[in-house]
Structure formats: structure tokens, C-alpha cells
Amino acid sequence: MQRKHYLPIPVNTLSRRCYLIEPPRKAHDQRNLLTGDSIQDIVAVKKFLHHEFRIKDLGNLKFFLGFEVARSQQGLILNQRKYCLDILAEFGFTGCKPANSPSNPTVKLKDDEGDLVQDPTAYRRLIGKLQYLTNTRPDISFAVQQVSQFMSKPRYSHLNAAFRILKYLKGCPGLGLFYPSANPHRIQAFSDSDWATCCITRKSTTGYCVFYGNCLISWKSKKQSTVSRSSTEAEYRALASVACELQWLKYVADDLCLQIPLPFPTFCDNQSAIQLAKNPSFHERTKHIEVDCHLIRAKILDGLIVLSHVPSKHQLADMFTKSLYPGPFNVNLSKMGLLNIHHPS
């Protein structure tokens, strides 16, 4: 499962510091967002748009395409509480007993075990809604990525795994991303991979998370496209993915006129992958990943990233590559910058 980014469109007619964020064309909600770092420029752009299109100003952002925005002097919280409650109500889980994690670490999903679901349309609709919910819920990204692999022929074991996600959401429907008003001006990333974790294809899972200061701004949990011969290769492919993401974020920061210090610290818990990135020579065992090697080397030489080792117990991207037991899962989740304003305790 990969997040979809909606790029801001600069309104260059009046100011380079104002950006118009448009929803997808197929969305029924025709509202747009206008953001910027100057109130005077925003007012001027609104006057210009009203003169051209007769727009209606709805005030400060509170609800947009299922996203709820709550502001205070401490910062901003972005969540999808109403959307989450609507999913629970649609599938009859408003009165269920909450689960303490989105997936069961002891359960391995397979494509040939259990009876086929009689109505796969309901399963696909549920997974589609959960995929949209991952825009503000990184804690369910890996679990949703797992159940979304069986859309063509879902079985009841897959449906029960999807219901486990709903039971987890029942206990924390209002959890959302918190962006404090006082935040360090830096970008750092954590990259991880679980080697040969898929029991069907033996492909590895890539997971990473990117922080702007203490705020989570990008994350990914996705099965790799090819089979890796070693854990080092799997980790290196994950590093290549996060390097591309950091390059994209650098372009976005430049468009927003943000001067973020380089290089971006990138943390990996595999020493072999780090040493391979620092070694410019290739040998027979690394020829099959030479393209990724050149990519990482290029980003290091360009000064975009710097690789550092992090112990596995402090690897924040761990929750995007495997199912964790409730203890490690909650410890990892507490470091993601998620808050629930409906249950402050």
C-alpha cells in the first residue's frame, strides 16, 4: 500500500506563495483548498478567483474529502474519524469488542486455504475503503497491504483478517496525524525490509516512513516486485525506494520555497546494506542489484541522503513490514506522532 500524494498547484498569477490544492477529478466534492504563508496573498488570490469564477469562501478548513482538521495553538490534527465510523457502521462493527492490534502475527494468509467468499464485491468494497483510510492511519498500512493481495479470489480467512482491522479501528476511530506548530526544520527517514516474508511468492516487503521534524509525512508498505536472494538485497531495494521518495520530497520542498538542510538522515538496521552503499566497487554477488546500487550511490554523492545504522528495536519502519505483537506495536505507534483528540488520556 502506497500513499497517493496530491501536488499543490502554484497560483502564479498573483503570488508564488499561494497554492491551490484540487481534489481528484472524479470526486463528488467540488471544494478546493487554498493555502500559503501570507494572509494578504491568500486574500488577493480569493478575490481574483471570485472575480473569475464566482467562488464561495467556506472559511478555515474543517472537513475535506473525508478528512477532518482540528486546530489549536499547539498545532493541527488530521484524521478521518467520521469516515472510519461510517465503515464500522456499514459492516456492522459498531458494537464489537476492540482488538489491540490490526493483524495477528501468528496468522499467515495464503491464497488456497479456506472457502471462497460468496460475495467478493463486499470484500473489495471494504478493502477499498480501508485503503483510503490509510491516508491518515499508517498503523493499519501493513495489515491493509496484506488483505489487498487477495482481491480477485478472497477467502473467508482473508475476510476474517479484514474484520480484525475493523475490530482494531473500533478501539481508536479518532486516531490521526498530529502536526505541532513548533517543529524542527529537518527531514529524516527510516527504511526496513522483511526478507521473503510472503509465503506464496517469497517476495520481500518494503517499508519506510519519512518525518518532517517530529511529524510523519510519508510512509509505505508494499511487497517488492522481484524475489531477493538475500536480506541485504531486500534491504537495499527498500533503501532505493526511500531514496526516490526523498528526492521527490526535495522537489516539493523547493516548489514550496522551503530550505531544508541536506543531507537527509536515513536510518537502516542492516549493516551489510549500508556498507554496500558506501562501497563503489561491485562483485559477482551484487551484479543483479547494480541498478539500485548506482541509484543509492548517486544520491549519497549528490548529498541528498546520508546512511546511518539504527538497532532493530529502534527501527520505526518495522511496523510497515510485518505484523507485530501488541507490545512492540504500541511502542512503535507511540513514536509516529499520532494523537486521538477524542480520548486525550
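the 2nd protein, sequnce then structure:
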Amino acid sequence: MPAMHPTEPWSPSPWAGSEDYSGSGALEELEELKLCPSWDLPYSYAYIPVLYLVAFAVGLLGNAFVVWLLAGRRGPRRLVDTFVLHLAAADLGFVLTLPLWAVAAALGGRWPFGESLCKLSSFALAGTRCAGALLLAGMSVDRYLAVVKLLDARPLRTPRCALATCCAVWAVALLAGLPALAYRGLQPLPGGQGSQCGEEASDAFQGLSLLLLLLTFMLPLGVTLFCYCRISRRLRRPPHLGRARRNSLRIIFAIESTFVGSWLPFSALRAIFYLARLGALPLPCSLVLALRWGLTIATCLAFVNSCANPVIYLLLDRSFRARARRGACGTIGRLARRVSSASSLSGDDSSLFRSGACSWGSFQPVQSVSGPL
């Protein structure tokens, strides 16, 4: 059959190609009907693997440091610390899969690691993305209760409730990742050039994926926006919050904004992709190519988010920078006396705390004041 004219609508068949996360996009040419021609972004096989490996290195070191900092902290932990700790663990699980997708991108989408690793890495991506969105929504609700409903919410703002919420988030995330185990696997690349790690293009999976996208991203996003709109209204009215608490809110808002900015383009394009696969949204060939390239860029943007939070802490939190310098000192840091940290990650706005900062000869105490997030 001759190729379809570029202006003719595209209605994908259930046996359309599959999606991969290597950066090569989500829409493959229909082999049976030879519909829309498609091309990868120029030189994507070169810069996408480098981007993934940089995100892996930064995300591994940064998130592991955050987990070490909070998990090893003695004494009572604030409620928001629980959310930050689990969020860092989710990002850590995400970045561990990035070297696999970097290799696949360098090979033009070919997956050399077998079907088991394909399923497990896809499961990890789906589960940790869902966990990240839900944990940030939980953090937003906690901030809303702490700022807007301070007195009324005390029975809900307990360490047991925070831990139970995080456990519930992980349970939902594991369930959200199960379709990847069932429907993702090795799919043949066009032209018989090997196999890629992709999904079965069945209508059942497309509909289920669209539903999960709405429930695990759009719904938490709506909750987050509602909470921060109410918080913003509260901040404009007296009595005004102290500087420390405002700074903590600013850090959390930066984390939330970065997550939304990174994942919203991917989620929006994926929703269009699912609708097109289901035949509910016919597309001309020019839009098919734009969707493919857009998903390539959006996937890179979303994956880089896994290393963003430690960078935000480093840029906006003085005490975190001090702790990072202290950790980088190695042996000198271990010889210094244990000090408390008063950052957006730990602390109390009724106290003054000191963090060790590294110098060439010895530790110089750096004083930092911060409040509960």
C-alpha cells in the first residue's frame, strides 16, 4: 500500500508500534499500513545518553546524601522530613534505571538487557513517578494544614499519620507500576534491527494507562494547586509568618514547581498519545512527527527531574550547603563533633542550630536559622 499523504488523519491500529524511554520517542511507523514516516531528533543518540548519565550521577549522589542525612538523624523527626526522605528514596530508585535507558538511547532504541530488566526498569519508572507525585501532594496537604488549619489539624499532623500516608503512597505506586510488568516487554524495532523495550499497543492497556495518568498525576496536581492557592491567600493576611517559615515554604514551592514543570509536558503529550492510539483523536502525519519529537524532549525533561531536588536544597538552603561541605570533607568531617542542622530538611524555628562547615584546617561553625516547613 502506498504511504499515506501527510495531511491525511492518522488513526493508529491496535498493533501500532510501541513506546520506549530511551529518548527515541513513542510513535513508531505502522509496519502494516506504512502510514506516517518518522525520524528521530538529529543526533539524539549522542546527547540523550550524556544527559541521562549526568542526571544519574547528580541524582545518585544528591539523593543518597539526602537519604543519609535524614535517615541517620537522631531524635524526633518533623512531619515534613518524612515526606522529604521518601521523596529522595523515590528519586533514588528512579535514577538507578537511567544508565539502562542511556545505553538504549545510544543504540538507537535497541534494548540489549533482556526482557526481565525491561519489565523491572519500566515498573520502577512508573512506580517512582507515581510515588513522587503523590508524596508532593501529601507534602502540600501537610503545608496547608500547618499554615491554614494549624489548630484544627493537630490530630492529623502526627508522625504516625505522616508515616501511614507515605506507606499508602508506596502501596498505590506499586499498584500503578503493575501494568508495566504485564504489558511492557521486548518489541521488534522497524526494519528488523533488534528489539526495543516497549509496550503492547492494546486498547485495554492504552485506556488503563490514560486512567492511571489522570489518577496519579492530574489528581495530585489539582490537590497541590488547591493547597498552594489557599496558602498564598493565607500569607497575604496578618498575622504574617516568620522569615524562617516563609523560606521553608519557598523551598517546597520550588520543589513542587520543578516537578510540575518537568512532568506536565510529558503527561500532556502522553495523554494525546493514548487518545490517538484509542482512535479518539485522529492526527495528521505532521502532528504525529511533532508528537514523537515532543515526547523525546519531554521524556528528557522528566527524567532530569530525578536529580533536581538535591540541587534545589543546595541552592536555597544554607544549612544543607554546610552539611554537604562537611560531608565532602571525609575524614575531617568524621573528626568534628556532632552538630545539629536547622535547615528546610530538619530543624525547629524556635531554636538556633549550628552546622559544620569545612575549611582547610578545621571546622568553623556556621549558624543558620530555619523553621518547620
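The chain has two domains: 34-316, 329-368. Residues 34-316 form a domain with the Rhopdopsin 7-helix transmembrane proteins fold (CATH 1.20.1070.10).
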